[in-house]
Structures are given as C-alpha cells and as structure tokens.
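Archive record
______________

***
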Amino acid sequence: MDCAEDYVKFCIKYVLKNNKDDLDFFNKLIEKGIIDRLNAVANSNFKRLPYTEAIEILEKEIQRKDKGAPKFEEKVYWGCDLASEHEKWLTDQVFKGPVIVYNYPRDIKSFYMKLN
C-alpha cells in the first residue's frame, strides 16, 4: 500500500510539474478545480481501511435519515464488489481524500489481487 501510494503521488507530482499547459486546459474546459484536487491528493495521506469497515460505513451512511444520505444504484452488503459510486462516496464524502480498501473477500477478488 505504501508503494502504491508513493507511486500515485509521484505520478501526480510529475504531471503537475511537467504538463502545466495540459492541466490548465483541463482545468478551464473539462473539470474546473482539477489542479487543486491533484495537489490535494499528492499532499495527503491515503486512508486505509479493511473491506468490512468500508461496508459498515456505507451501510450506516445509507441508513441516515437526512437529505444528504446516499441513494446508491448498486446494493451494499458484505460480499458485494464495491461499485465506483461506493468508492466515490467513501473518498469524496466520508474521508474527503484518497482511500485504499484492503482485505476484500476472496470470492470477489480480481485475478491480479494478492490473496491473503
């Protein structure tokens, strides 16, 4: 996880340093705030949490009664593969930064994920 975090940060810092014109273009016409968001990721510590905790957090978020509670298209339950909407909620709403989820159930792991 440390290696992956360091690599992502290195890549982002490289792009920020060496591709300013491209990023300015993206920031202006594609996604306003992308440069600030990349800087935030490059300078933050990635949150790490086990799969079970991620599911518990998402289930609690769904049960909230306020207007800000998520309404996911994909169901959340232990054993489901986290959808991008679930991952986005964890990163953008819960932790407000990068997240690494580990210890996925064996049956839903992709072929390239290490078994533990």
